[in-house]
Design brief:
With about 140 residues, the protein is of the alpha+beta class. The chain has one domain: Rossmann fold, CATH 3.40.50. It is about 35% helix and about 20% strand. The strands form two sheets. The protein has a three-stranded antiparallel sheet with strand order 1-3-4, with helices on one face. A two-stranded parallel ribbon has the order 2-5.
Length: about 140
Amino acid sequence: MKNAPIIKKELIDSLKTPLYNAHSGYLPNYKGVSCGIWPLVNNEELVGVTIHEVVPEIDAGKIIYRKTIKLDKIPSNLFYGKYINDQQMNLIGNFICNYKNKENFQLSEKEGDGKYFSSPGITDYVRGLKNLKQLKKKGNE
């Protein structure tokens, strides 16, 4: 669910099993919402998707799976969002297939606190797509 509401600590604590979130950003670097666009705005060469355990702090739980994606390998600027969502769905599939056998989980050590990002504005989207276009052009040279 895009931009899911924050789950209250009382609810998280009341669950008998862990709760997991599929996040459209590379944690811990990109916490918050619309984290697929912020690496473009920041002129990064990689984006990522993450599955993590839900804790009361936003996007701060144990990282279970992560995948990085080289931006110059994305087939089309027009379908950037769909491509990121497809990668996220693949990660969810791997997670579901391995859920019963938890030793296959790829738990990652915390790599810093990262930064929280809020909803981007139209100028952020324009700048991000412009940066992606330049990166792909540079990769084709």
